[in-house]
Design a protein that fits this description.
Blueprint (H helix, E strand, L loop, with lengths): L3 E4 L2 E6 L3 H8 L17 E6 L1 E2 L3 E12 L6 E9 L7 E6 L6 E4 L3 E5 L5 E9 L12 E12 L5 E2 L3 E8 L1
Keywords: Signal
Organism: Sphingopyxis fribergensis
Pfam family, one: DUF4402
Amino acid sequence: MKLRLFLGFALAFGAAPSAGAQCLLCTQDKAAGTTARKAEVPLRVEVETQLDMGRVAVGAMGGEVELDPASGARRVRGDVVDLGGFALTGTVTVRGEPGAGVRVILPASVDLESGHGRTARVTSLVTDLSAAPRLGADGRLIFRFGGRLQIAGLDDGDYRGRIPVTVEYE
C-alpha cells in the first residue's frame, strides 16, 4: 500500500467584522414576528487561531481527520496515518455588548482547494459553545471550533479555504 503525503493546511476565516451592524440593517422587516434587539455596541469578530488539521498520509482508500474543539484531540479514520505536527482548533474572539446573547453560525461544509486544483471537504463544523452563548461582563466571548476533513485517496497537497463565521445578536 502506497501512502501519499497530505501536508498540513490552515483555514482562513471570513468573518464579518461587525456582523451585528449588518443584521441591524436587515431588521426593518419584522414580518417574521420577532422583535429586533437594538444593540448599543456593534459586534466585532476576530480570528485568533486558524484551524489546522496537521500532517497526515493518505492511502488509496482515503479517510478523514477529525479535530475536536473542546479537547483539541485529532482523530484519524480510514486509510489515514497521523504524521504528527501541530493540529490546532480554530479560536475566535467576539466583542460586543456586555451580557448580550449571540448566535454563531458556521456552514454545514466547506470545500478546500490545493495548488493543483484538487479539493477536499471539511464537514461537521462544531464549536465548544453552550446552547445559549452570551458575551461576558467584559463584552467578550472566546470560542473554539473544529470539524472533520474528508480526504480522497489520490488527493495530496496543501489545502486551503475560507470558513465564514457569522455572529449575530439574539
